[in-house]
Amino acid sequence: MQIRELDRADVARIWEIDRSETHDEVYVLRDGALELVPSHFAATGWHPATIEQDTPRLAAADVRLAALDSDRIVGVAVLEGERLFYLHVDAAYRGRGVGTRLFEEAASRSPRLLVSATPTRSTIDFYLARGCVLDPDPPADQVADEPDDIQLLYER
Fold it and tell me: What is the CA radius of gyration of the chain?
């Protein structure tokens, strides 16, 4: 497994990542604390609107990191300045350290990371285990872009 920068021309390969997963709990922010609540749903793949909307943004991003197994992209981390815009790992590669390696490489590029994280238990627990904390003052545009997300901060 290697981590390398992904060229703009290869951004469309991100959509090859199998992002399917099933969730039973999500976090909500209540009175400044995280609380788990039941919420069963399945993410089955990339929505066509996401692909259309995010492809140009990913191409314009400051840093695009890809985790590769041979020539297959099995994970990606994308930075816009100090914002961790994307971190996805292929379903077949989760739990094998790919996400940790991508996060650590992204974190090495900036003294702090702003993370707007999907509120699923697995996602939030991943970031908390890597030292992220609730962002006490998240950027208003980030909150407006993703109002259901949990806003986290990582500082080295």
Answer: 15
Backbone phi, psi, residue 90, to 5°: -55, 140
Per-residue model confidence as pLDDT tens digits over 49-102:
999 999 999 999 999 999 999 989 999 999 999 999 999 999 999 999 999 999
Q: Output the pLDDT for position 156.
A: 86
Which residue, chain included where needed, has tokens 């492809």?
55
User: 141, 18 in Cβ contact below 8 A?
Assistant: no
Q: Which two tokens mark 137? A: 């003052």
Percent of the chain whose predicted confidence (pLDDT) is above 70: 100
Q: Residue 8 pLDDT more than 90?
A: yes
Tell me how far apart the alpha carbons of residues 99 and 104 are, in angstroms, rounded to a whole number. Answer: 9
Please give the model's pTM, rounded to 2 decimal places: 0.94
Q: Label residue 33 exposed, middle or buried (CB < 10 Å: 0-12, 13-18, 19+).
A: exposed
Asked if 92 and 75 touch (Cβ cutoff 8 Å), the reply is no
Could you say which DSSP state residue 120 is in? Answer: B
